[in-house]
Batch of 2 targets.
Target 1
Amino acid sequence: MMIRIKRGQTGKGLLNTVAKMSGVDLSVCYQCKKCSCGCTVAKHAQSPPAEIIRRLQLCAGDELLNNDLIWTCVSCETCFARCPMGIDMVAVMDALRKLALERKATIPEGNVPLFNKAFLKTVSIFGRTYDLAMMAMYKIGTSSYTQDSDKLPVIFKKRKLALLPSWSANRKIVQRIFKKARQNKEL
Amino acid sequence: MKYAYYPGCAAESSARDQHASSMAVAKALGIDFVEIEGWSCCGATPGHQTDRVLAASLAAANLIWAQAMGLDVVVNCAACYSRLKMANYEALSHSDRRKKIAAAIGRDYDGKVNVKHFMEVLLKDYGADALGNACTRSLAGLKVASYYGCLLVRPHEVTNFDDPENPKSLDNLISAMGGESLDWPGKVDCCGNSLSLTTRSDLVVNLSDSIIGMAKAAGAECIAVACPLCQVNLDLRQMDIKKQTGRQYDLPILYITQLIGLGLGIPEETLGLNKLVVSASKIIHAVKANA
């Protein structure tokens, strides 16, 4: 793998920001690539996890936030589990996801941020997830109405999903947590 | 034996069968589940992918309520299990994170509530042999592929559930009930469920196909799972796999609590076995014949 670095770019990258946000020391990575070999989705994405670390080490800038591994990653934790240096790659990916949203990077097919937003929206309202509302929000946002609609008959026949939301959660605390997150600009 | 029970959101929706079968198994074995009053969502994958403090706070709030009950927490869902244990891990290992969690909830959490998956309770607290003795029907002759997926076993530093590469917990429970637990390579592979509801379900179908294919090749008559997300994915996606690849597996995906319930002689309606998309009727008949 050859990584080209633009002249004058060194020293201005994302490395320190990501290290601070994730609490991970990326300088200890020696590119054994166990994370890449075990990665559930590497072959479906632009770059495997080891390449993301190498690019960060080589002072990659905001352009790295457009890498589609950021939103293809399924947080399966295999990379972290197999890293001989104990690098918490999931924390690194979480930091990159946060930065990608803050700095308005390209969101690839799948629109995972919209899914996450829809999921958390129902939690912030009901204190628990409400599958139907979450799915409706995502489908409206992505205009993907027909996707998986072939499974609806069996989902309803088997009563797989709750039709109504639950109202039993301690919503006061949950809403406080969301409010604090918004105040700290975490959301 | 008494535990504070954290059902998790799926228990009220897609995994009502896992919830029902777990409650029935616990009751049959004399294990007392006391539901945490007002429990709320753990944040799941969207939580930590959005913000780590938010995720840890959502999980920790539930642990604070459990702490007031003075009981260990028992969980069914692998994703909830992982998030609750991560909240403990973060509160214990990052003092800065602990302060932020306290500020979000309005109360400090020390990270010291014991969180156990129901399978850990059965193996370590109740005992696999005791479970085997409690069974009125044997699983003899049944070939089961135990599937652990990601979040029960990874990251090991956080969950400390079992060997992260070759776990045996579910296999030991199957063996204790007389079943044949298979050695197969897909045990800890990921089914990709976090993308399942997005428009990247093509990827999820691909991953599920690989897992089910490996189980089938090992001679499995069913896959036993301990996570509601894995269950729905592997069960429901067999339709897509058939459409996209022509491969028809017809492999039933049962919650391990449903298999245990069958062994304990609990009626199949109570165990929610009618909710499975790929029918488990062959397995139910076979186990019943072992009485």
Target 2
Amino acid sequence: MVTGTSPLVLTPDEQAMLDGGSGRAVALAMRLVVGVARAGGATRLLPAESAHVDGCIYHGRAALDLAERLVELGGRVAIRTTLNVGSLDLLHPGMVRADAELADGGRRLMDAYLALGCEQTWSCAPYQISHRPAQGTHVAWAESNAIAFVNSVLGARTDRYGDFLDIAAALTGRVPAAGLHLDSERRPVLLLDCSAVPAELWEHDAAWAALGAVLGEVAGTRVAALTGVPGSLDDGGTTEDRLKAVAATAASAGGVALFHVVGVTPEEVSVDGLPAHRVGPADLRAARDRLTTSLDDRLDAVSLGTPHFSVSEFAALAREVDEEVRFAVPVYVSTSRAVLAEATRLGHLAPIERAGARIVTDTCTYVTPVLDPAAHSVMTSSGKWAWYAPANLGVDVVLGSLAECVASARAGRVVRDESPWS
Amino acid sequence: MSRPGPEPHPPGLHLSGIHGRTLHPGRAAGQVLRLSEPVSFWGGVGEDGRIVDVHHPQRGASLAGQVVVMDGGRGSSSSATIVAELVRVGAAPAALVLGECDSILVVGALVGAELYDVQMPIIELAPADLDRIGPGRVEVEADNAGAGTGLATIRATPPEQAS
């Protein structure tokens, strides 16, 4: 027998949208929002202030059919909407080795989302420059790293949106009142006590990706609180970059959509009585080693910027490179147009390009064919790239810090410093 | 999204009526395919509807036209696109029977219905009822009860209609 639940109740405005009062595209979008709200047992909808849409990467004809249908029906987003990466680098034609279907379908899909009024950010890290929702506001974001970042680091509220529901929320400005929009779902249910990790290891950026992997593996899809983790969100970007790595890797390794770093992230939480897991340096080292599949020091390429490289990461990379010593292997840096423009203005780009790095915008090297197909062993500072690339691209990976990636790219072989881990 | 799911049926109730909750409405019939673990449609199901996930114990089995029974959904939100794509090419399951709601699969079915006018019902049963379905051919009826949650029923196909 079915357990009784309260039905979904719509406001008069929402009912009018469903009935076609705001046009046929909005009505279609509202049918998707309402269908999901009912299935999930929501009793009402909530207004969303902004959206980040992930449906603009080409995964097949059906997604293109929906986007073009919404355009044909006169659809227009009702709230500010940024776009995740697409399938092509529109600024650097030829960067992606696309076949005819990907080139045509990918371009048409990107064009359709622009026609719906979305902003051409083409970034998995829209939170880095312009799209920074205020704490406590409801938003409809897709892309697992962006969801975890906006919930955890900015303290805005989104559930796990994805293909189709993201653009439906953008067209209607509504989301189901469910999941991580609700106070009751945002409280931590477990604690990761990281106080045993030595201060010098926190200075090694691979430790943060490793922490994300541990968080994902321990928490799964649950909300965790972390204690003993240093940082300040007012330090000019370093802590944001580190928490970006934690969020992206935890979302990949486990499905984490929200975590709280006590004393660092904005939401006040109580950790009293939570079941605690102690995380020490040996756990981080083991996680780093799980994110490394390569068995020797062979190196064919280096990939940086998953999620997209930030201005502060470009500054750090500019400090690491030596213009006199060009990279011995291809080095790819994925970023957004907005960050690229700002990093260029600040003078970070010139030394990096002189050292031989190739900048990729609008897309990312783990979802589209950018790397040389002959590449077997690739180094990265990104836990997310290390998690997905072996299956997506068929390569072996080595996880290292930014400094280790640069040293390795110069040497043409993997160079890692084991001392901080011992 | 979490909510209380359907309660299990008392033991011994005949298959002629296992009731659950409609996640996406529609009517369908097909052979029961019980998956021993959930499959991710994104990366786990090929364009012909076969399981391609190398880690899945039923790799190679076809979901196309079957009443697919699994404990829940799994994996990336891109699975919604794959479900809609399978509906488009006619390789989708006839129906999905889940032990818990998965909104990603529901979105895929909603879009499949909007674009291609094909209803692939999705229903939620109490997890204890999943193993009481089939084997053999069943009919799935998932109604759409206005603003509330609809009632869904699975029945064994009478022998004279079985194929």
